[in-house]
Amino acid sequence: MNFPKHIAIIPDGNRRWAKKKGLLSFLGHNKGAEVAEEIIKEAINLKIPYFTFWGCSINNVIKRPKSEVSFLFKIFEKQFKKISEDKAIYENKIRINVFGRWKELFPKETSIVIENAIEKTKNHNNYQLNFLLAYSGKDEMTETIKNISDLKLKNKNLEINESLIKNNLWTKNSPPVDLVIRTGEGDNLAHWSDGFMMWDTANSQFYFTKTLWPDFNKKELKKANNKFSLAEKRLGK
């Protein structure tokens, strides 16, 4: 099977899953974290070189109830501690990258755990596992434009092209996304989220599923990969 080289996941539906079951939203996030762990392990088993997982947006952090956000921080602490101690991460030489405003918006104790996982895997070069935390695609592009503007001021002859833009993205060391999976899409029109990786998804294949993230599993991931393998990419041809 022709697997994508770079998969990005927008895991939507934790709170709706909990509500349907009459549970607190906290339990939906907890179940979602368990599923994320399972899917990431499967991505490693499938030897997908680049895997990007959107953990939370900026709005998730600043607009949701403080008690819910605090619980999310605890989940991130737990999961990144597990990642930093996971033998598979070291056996497969998987590098952990984390992009977004997490250093500014997360509690110090949470940031320390995340920074530890990044530091311990910084020299790994077989696979890359990216996490987007307190992330916005519009924020990423704004920072990219600012960086290029500064470079242009220093060098008036600087040529602004696709390569320069890519090299100033937060995700500059990852290739364009081949497949985007978004869970929790209902009967209405599917929607995007806050300019999610807008540059890197310019030519991506998109897989939308009604399955809420806590119900997503290896079978659903395989289904998305099958769809990708069968799709014909014309790219304007």
Q: Which terms would index this structure?
A:
six-stranded parallel sheet, 48% helix, Undecaprenyl pyrophosphate synthetase, 237 residues, globular, 6 strands, alpha/beta
Brief summary:
With 237 residues, the protein is of the alpha/beta class.
Description of the molecule:
- Helix content is 48%, strand content 15%.
- It is of the alpha/beta class and 237 residues long.
- The chain has a single domain, classed as Decaprenyl diphosphate synthase-like (Undecaprenyl pyrophosphate synthetase).
- A 6-stranded parallel beta sheet has the order 3-4-2-1-5-6, sandwiched between helices.
- The longest helix has 21 residues, at 25-45.
- 35% of the residues are buried.
Order of helices and strands: EHHEHHHEHHEHHEEH
Structural class: alpha/beta
Strand order of the biggest β-sheet: 3-4-2-1-5-6
CATH topology type: Undecaprenyl pyrophosphate synthetase
Total strand count, please? 6
* Beta-strand content bin: 15-25%
CATH architecture type: 3-Layer(aba) Sandwich
The CATH class is Alpha Beta
Proportion of residues in helical segments: 40-55%
Cα separation of the termini: 24 Å
Largest sheet: 6 strands, parallel
CATH homolog superfamily: Decaprenyl diphosphate synthase-like
Number of helices: 10
- How confident overall, as mean pLDDT? 94
Shape: globular
The total domain count is 1
Rg, alpha carbons = 18 Å
Helices and strands in order:
Layout: E1 6-10, H1 14-20, H2 25-45, E2 50-57, H3 58-63, H4 66-85, H5 87-91, E3 94-99, H6 102-105, H7 108-120, E4 127-135, H8 137-154, H9 162-167, E5 179-182, E6 205-208, H10 218-230
Parallel strand pairs: 1-2, 1-5, 2-4, 3-4, 5-6
Helix pairs in contact: 1-2, 2-4, 4-7
